[in-house]
Amino acid sequence: GCARSPKENGFDWVLDRLIAGLDVTAGDIAGMGVGGLLMEIPTRPQPREPAPHPARSALKVDIVLLAAGRSSRMGGPNKLLALFDGE
């Protein structure tokens, strides 16, 4: 991580501000840039292997119901309460 890196990085910048008695805000840290506080160093293997994505189970959708209004155009029974295939 940043604290163990031999190269100056965002952790050092935050410590410098704290030691100087300056406040460190979320905006300060966000302003340090995208990609984290630790810069790339030549000794790190490149390209890095991407982190494995956790296995995701397939979602099963039983029904999608889009409804609005009073169901008055259908006439007779309320379509939202009607049986479908006996269910």
The number of helices is 2
Through-space gap between termini = 57 Å
Radius of gyration: 28 Å
H/E element order: HH
Unreliable stretches (pLDDT < 50, length at least 5) are none
Number of strands: 0
- The helix content is 10-25%
How would a textbook summarize the main sheet?
A: none
- Report the principal-axis shape: elongated
Class from helix and strand fractions? mainly alpha
Q: Approximately what portion of the residues adopt beta-strand conformation?
A: under 5%
Residue-averaged pLDDT: 74
What's the topology here?
Elements: H1 10-19, H2 26-30
Which features would summarize this protein structure in a list?
87 residues; mainly alpha
Describe the protein.
This protein has 87 residues and is mainly α. It has helices at 10-19, 26-30. The chain has a domain at 1-44. The longest helix is centred in the N-terminal third of the chain and has 10 residues, at 10-19. The chain is elongated. The relative contact order is 0.12.
